Amino acid sequence: MASQQTLKDQITFLYEGETGTAHRFRYGLLAVDFGTILFLVAATFIYGNPWVEWIGIVLGLYIALDYAARMWIAPAKVSFVLSPLNIADLVATVSFLLPLLGANLSFLRALRVLRLLRSYRVLNRLRADVLFFSRNEAIILSATNLFIFIFLMTELVFVTQVDRNPEVTNFLDAMYFTIAALTTTGFGDVTLQGQSGRLISIIIMIFGVSLFLRLVQTIFRPSKVRFPCPACGLVLHENDAIHCKHCGAVLNIPSDGDV
């Protein structure tokens, strides 16, 4: 029992701690997630290769271990299980491991992308370590949301069309259609077949345009920085603010060149 408690303490330290080791561990997890994205893209160009499926299974086991470790240390197990991000992780895990049963729902693997920059501890660390991130967080997160949507839709287009549509043979073909639909350009040289293809096209156009406009709005509206007001605690302020707009307290927001 004591050894189990020690192991649980060690895992909690890595996932929740604020030391350099814990920060490096979580950055490592983020790097693996980026590597998973690269694998998902590369796999579409060698679709059906057996060794690709085995790499997917290894990644599925990694995600399963990550999920199990986080659930073990979670103080509220029910809340953890019902969290949308954790549900997405669980679905992604199953989709990675389904080839062991002869099934294929590989487009669901892209749900793992939802974890990118979604951990509040990773966000807090990035704000502290990277000045560019802290000053442009809204733009970066909006761009990340748009990227996640494009990636998910591209994977869905590829998996549902690759064996039935001669115009979609790899990830690039699927992304070309996704971007054309998202921007409502509609070249017409690549179209999705079947009723499911029409439904996917509608989803891309409706939700994708909304995310794209949100990103444009974030880029061109006056940027804000995260700087807690010493008097009232308001966090977001204009980057050239001298006084807090809520309580009027004097602010000393550091410039990009300040240490």
Please write out the topology.
Elements: H1 2-16, H2 20-45, H3 50-73, H4 77-82, H5 84-97, H6 120-129, H7 131-135, H8 137-161, H9 171-182, H10 194-220, E1 224-226, E2 236-238
Antiparallel strand pairs: 1-2
Helix pairs in contact: 1-2, 1-3, 3-5, 8-9, 8-10
Describe this structure in words.
The chain is an all-alpha fold. The chain has a domain at 1-135: Four Helix Bundle (Hemerythrin (Met), subunit A). It contains 10 helices and 2 strands, in the order H-H-H-H-H-H-H-H-H-H-E-E. Helix 1 (2-16) crosses helix 2. The longest helix is centred in the last third of the chain and has 27 residues, at 194-220. The mean pLDDT is 78.
| Pattern of helices and strands | HHHHHHHHHHEE
Work out the number of β strands: 2
Summed over residues and divided by their number, the pLDDT gives a mean of 78
Tell me the distance between the termini.
47 Å
Reading off the top of the CATH hierarchy, the class of the domain at 1-135 is best stated as Mainly Alpha
Instruction: Outline the low-pLDDT stretches.
Output: none
- Treating each run of at least 4 consecutive H or I residues as one helix, how many helices? 10
What's the arrangement of strands in the largest beta sheet? Answer: 1-2
Please state the CA-atom Rg, rounded to the nearest Å. 22 Å
Percent strand equals: under 5%
Percentage of residues in helical conformation: 55-70%
Look at the helices and sheets and give the structural class. mainly alpha
Outline: flat
CATH topology of the domain at 1-135: Four Helix Bundle (Hemerythrin (Met), subunit A)
For the record, the CATH architecture of the domain at 1-135 stands as: Up-down Bundle
The major pleated sheet works out as: 2 strands, antiparallel
